[in-house]
Design brief:
By secondary structure, the chain is α+β, with helices and mostly antiparallel strands. It contains 13 helices and 32 strands. It has a 32-stranded mixed sheet that branches. The relative contact order is 0.04.
């Protein structure tokens, strides 16, 4: 009987254990399983919590799911949040969050972290900037500073940045970002990745004392294939907030980096790599780089730069000094001057990429190279806006002389205008022609002034409208490729064979000057003359710049040692005409024969017998 009683007790205990195990399994299952909620209470509470944490107006519209194990958590569909000004709007397919256990036991819902799945974020930078300025002017609230989460996460987000009522847009995709926060005095860190202009970017941020009323240390980095940047400094929370510290930036190719920021610098020349090391100050007014060391390609700069927004456009001001500046790559962005066939280009001009911002830069350099041109000890200013770009050389040494002047390009409706004015002093023409690798036509030390204006839709149009003036004086030089003095010596004995005397050699002059006026692309010689020890010469005519053609008449005559004209005034006359890269030189043979004592009688008889035409010699050589 005792055994039977023990058996019944054992069976009862077994059933109790089985029932208890089943109840525990059901309880665990209920805790582990997500519970759907269709009521508005949970959605309203989560919306209230999100608004309390972020100061945004939050709203959850979709179904809500709650689970107790392994940790209390919720998931709500169709989450939205925005600020009152419309600067920030967020829409997410889902909001996921963990709940704090102790408040939950007490009957309150408190989020410990939040993750937004596939959020779509719209940011109006103009309104956001105004909000920051307004917030900076308000007293800081300790309660607001205490509103922190353990973490905020974004998964596969998409952000749209816009300015000027949507006239400027930029998009960031693939946002995977986690912001870690805890108590008020603890550091805040953010780490993640995103895609901007097709470039995967890794970024990180650490703020040592985010709730401090004083200065808080800050570290930040931005890393992608085209750019590596980092800052190390401190942020001042006082109104207005301001960051100051050290910045380092490197880019393997500046043209690729510019394309990442929407600026087209593509051209036949590579700008090279970029590196910047500088002290940085960033606040609501803009960005300032001081004690900056900038390396760009073969150029090295030291100085300061300031960038800020002015009239809804970037404004860049700065003063930089350099040992050497190579602007060859920048010159390659200029529109093509010639077509492949050698004609003036008729491709419409576009200088937008040279004037994407308001720029005011002052450069000084011991050496500056622009293509084949070199200047030294130069002071240059670059002032530009979307409608005008002006480059001025205050002073510079060039080719053993000095040069100063300016070039201005401007927009006039659909046309591009051009204005330039230069002055030169003691410029060695031989050094200049050698450096720019064009055939030498003149030598000597040149002084003068040149001013040109033009306007059009293409290079050909600008040159056809060109007007201006030039005055050049030269001393102790030569007209290279033509020996007028030698030809004049032999004109008496062999007037019809002096063509060979003109070929090669040079005509020396002690002083020469030329004055030219240009209208509608045609340069008309007002005065051109030269005087040497044995010869004097002058020229008249015109140069058609659009057609690249010459129509010149040149005279030369012998002079005595004191510079006076020879008593017989023997003259050599010639016409230079045709394309300026291969002109024809035609001698006035009638004048040559008339000045020959031996040939003049024969010429007189010949003209009486057949007065219709006089022979000439077409040399077709470049003078």
């Amino acid at each position: 009987m005792q055994l039977a009683k023990q058996g019944r007790i054992s069976n009862m205990n077994g059933r109790q254990k089985l029932f208890s195990g089943a109840a525990l399994a059901v309880a665990v299952g209920l805790c582990l399983a997500p519970w759907p909620f269709s009521g508005a209470a949970l959605r309203e509470e989560i919306s209230r919590q999100a608004s309390h944490i972020s100061d945004l107006q939050a709203e959850a519209r979709g179904n809500a799911i709650f689970a107790l194990l392994p940790r209390p958590r919720i998931k709500i569909a169709e989450f939205r949040a925005h600020d009152a000004s419309g600067a920030l709007n967020i829409e997410a397919d889902y909001l996921r969050g963990d709940l704090r256990l102790l408040p939950l036991i007490a009957g309150r819902i408190e989020l410990s972290n939040v993750t937004l799945v596939e959020p779509r974020i719209d940011i109006d930078l103009d309104k956001a900037g105004e909000n920051l300025r307004t917030a900076a002017a308000r007293p800081r609230s300790g309660d607001a500073l205490a509103r922190t989460l353990g973490a905020i996460g974004l998964i596969d987000g998409h952000a749209t940045l816009r300015r000027n009522n949507g006239q400027w847009l930029s998009e960031i995709t693939g946002i995977d970002l986690t912001i870690d926060m805890s108590e008020r005095a603890a550091p805040v860190s953010a780490r993640g990745s995103f895609i901007w202009r097709s470039q995967p970017v890794q970024t990180a941020l650490w703020i040592g004392q985010p709730a401090s009323d004083g200065r808080s240390p800050v570290l930040a980095s931005f890393d992608c294939a085209l750019l590596n940047a980092s800052v190390d400094g401190a942020i001042a929370a006082a109104a207005p907030p301001e960051f100051e510290g050290a910045a380092r930036l490197t880019a393997p190719a500046i043209d690729g980096l510019a394309a990442m920021f929407g600026v087209d610098l593509s051209g036949p020349q590579d700008f090279g790599a970029l590196s910047v090391n500088s002290t940085v100050k960033l606040n609501a007014r803009g960005l300032t780089l001081s004690r900056a060391r900038v390396a760009l390609g073969g150029s090295r700069f030291d100085g300061s730069l300031t960038a800020f927004m002015h009239n809804d456009r970037p404004q860049i001001d700065g003063t930089l000094a350099a040992e050497k500046i190579d602007l060859t790559a920048l010159a390659s962005l200029a529109p093509a001057t010639f077509t492949p066939e050698g004609e003036w280009s008729r491709t419409p001009l576009n200088i937008d990429r040279l004037m994407g911002a308001d720029v005011d830069l002052r450069l000084s350099a011991k050496q500056i190279r622009l293509g084949r041109f070199d200047i030294a000890n130069a002071g240059i200013s670059i002032i530009g806006n979307p409608d005008r770009l002006n480059i001025s050389i205050a002073e510079a040494e060039a080719y053993r002389g000095q040069v100063r002047g300016h070039v201005t390009a401007y927009r006039n409706a659909a046309k591009i205008g051009w204005h330039s004015a230069f002055s030169i002093a003691n410029l060695d023409m031989t050094s200049f022609f050698t450096a720019v690798r064009i055939p030498k036509r003149f030598s000597g030390a040149a002084n003068g002034e040149i001013a040109l204006d033009g306007e059009g839709q293409a290079i050909a149009d600008v040159l056809a409208s060109l007007h201006g003036a030039a005055h050049i004086e030269a001393a102790s030089g030569d007209v290279i490729g033509i020996d007028m003095e030698q030809a004049l010596r032999r004109i008496e004995r062999r007037p019809l064979s002096i063509a060979s005397e003109l070929r090669g050699g040079a005509t020396h002059f002690d002083h020469a000057n030329a004055s030219v006026e240009i209208e509608h692309g045609v340069a008309r010689i007002q005065r051109a003359e030269g005087v040497g020890a044995g010869v004097s010469f002058d020229a008249s005519g015109s140069i058609a710049i659009p057609a690249r053609a010459l129509a010149l008449h040149v005279r030369a005559w012998s002079v005595q040692g004191d510079g006076d004209a020879a008593t017989d005034r023997t003259q050599l006359k010639m016409d230079i005409s045709g394309a300026w890269n291969a002109p024809s030189l035609v001698l006035d043979t009638q004048s040559l024969i008339q000045h020959s004592k031996a040939a003049a009688p024969l010429w007189s008889e010949a003209t009486q017998a057949a007065p219709a035409a006089a022979p000439s010699a077409d040399l077709r050589q470049s003078p």
